[in-house]
From TrEMBL:
This is Indole-3-glycerol phosphate synthase. GO terms for molecular function: indole-3-glycerol-phosphate synthase activity; phosphoribosylanthranilate isomerase activity. The gene is trpC. Residues 5-259 form the Indole-3-glycerol phosphate synthase domain. InterPro entries: Aldolase_TIM, Indole-3-glycerol_P_synth, Indole-3-glycerol_P_synth_dom, Indole-3-GlycerolPSynthase_CS, RibuloseP-bd_barrel. It comes from Sphingomonas sanxanigenens DSM 19645 = NX02. HAMAP family: IGPS_B. It catalyses: 1-(2-carboxyphenylamino)-1-deoxy-D-ribulose 5-phosphate + H(+) = (1S,2R)-1-C-(indol-3-yl)glycerol 3-phosphate + CO2 + H2O.
């Protein structure tokens, strides 16, 4: 695990312990049961990918690599713009210390649209999956570099219990192999090196051919424009996760449409 990821996960562990101390699990479960049913995240991606680029559009205010990305930040409006622009799904960052995210942003974004939403956060405990469902999330993120096999399986089991999808994020062939021991067949390759934040599309190109048939394969991070997506599509990638390049635009809806249809 990189130093950066270890630091983020340690911070998250403390935050989760604090939250657990304040929220009885029975209450959290009751909220998760009362939430609107999960919208099929992987199914929405597969449906779009059948006819073109399938986009997970990310609601992202800031990041460790870039600092503040968007000053006038309105998750409700951005979610609507992404939906109108043709995104298949949304990703909403809820981590506060490193991404200036918030749980409320997920709630606001999901309420604005009919698209399935990923709670983009650093999961270190299955408790966070139930919390994600209580917030309305349809999908959670499992970062292979941050977890051992047993932790990944426990987090995935909780997602399955709630009828949610799990996006399993990998950086290399070893992590892909570990990811494929899980039941989820929704795999994301992060092009960002978490040691120096450099981007290499080679990560995606290396792994796309190793993903077994039947996998929904997502290229994540550093994608700037339609040419990037087209280049990846030529190598067999159909699904893309894009944040910063869209969040920096004045007209988010037009930028989303341009990314998908040119
Ligand atoms: O975005 C970062 O700087 C970052 C740093 C450390 C860990 C994770 C990070 N990003 C999380 C993501 O997965 C991206 O937000 C997502 O793939 C979108 O990337 P981009 O299109 O480059 O904003």
């Amino acid at each position: 695990m990189t130093d950066m990821l270890a630091e983020i996960c340690a911070t998250k562990r403390l935050e989760v312990d604090r939250r657990k101390a304040h929220t009885p699990f029975a209450d959290l479960e009751a909220r998760a049961r009362a939430a609107t049913p999960p919208r099929g995240f992987r199914a929405a991606l597969d449906a779009k990918a059948a006819t073109g680029h399938a986009l997970i559009a990310e609601v992202k205010k800031a990041s460790p690599s870039k600092g503040l990305i968007r000053e006038h930040f309105d998750p409700h409006a951005h979610a609507l713009a992404y939906q109108s622009g043709g995104a298949a799904c949304l990703s909403v960052l809820t981590d506060e210390p490193y991404f200036m995210g918030h749980d409320d942003y997920l709630v606001a974004a999901r309420a604005a649209v009919s698209l399935p939403c990923l709670r983009k956060d650093f999961l270190v405990d299955p408790w966070q999956v139930t919390e994600a469902r209580a917030l309305g999330a349809d999908c959670i993120l499992i970062i292979a570099a941050a977890l051992d096999d047993a932790q990944m399986a426990d987090i995935e089991a909780e997602a399955i219990r709630w009828g949610m999808d799990a996006l399993v994020e990998v950086h290399d062939a070893d992590e892909l192999e570990r990811a494929l021991k899980l039941r989820s067949r929704l795999i994301g390759v992060n092009n960002r090196d978490l040691r120096d934040f450099s981007i290499s599309f080679e990560r995606t190109y290396e792994l796309v051919d190793r993903a077994p048939a039947g996998c929904t394969f997502v290229a994540e991070s550093g994608l700037r424009d339609k040419a990037d997506l087209d280049a990846m599509a030529a190598r067999g990638v159909r699904c893309f996760l894009v944040g910063e390049a869209l969040m920096r635009q004045d007209d988010v809806e037009a930028a989303t449409r341009a990314l998908i249809v040119g």
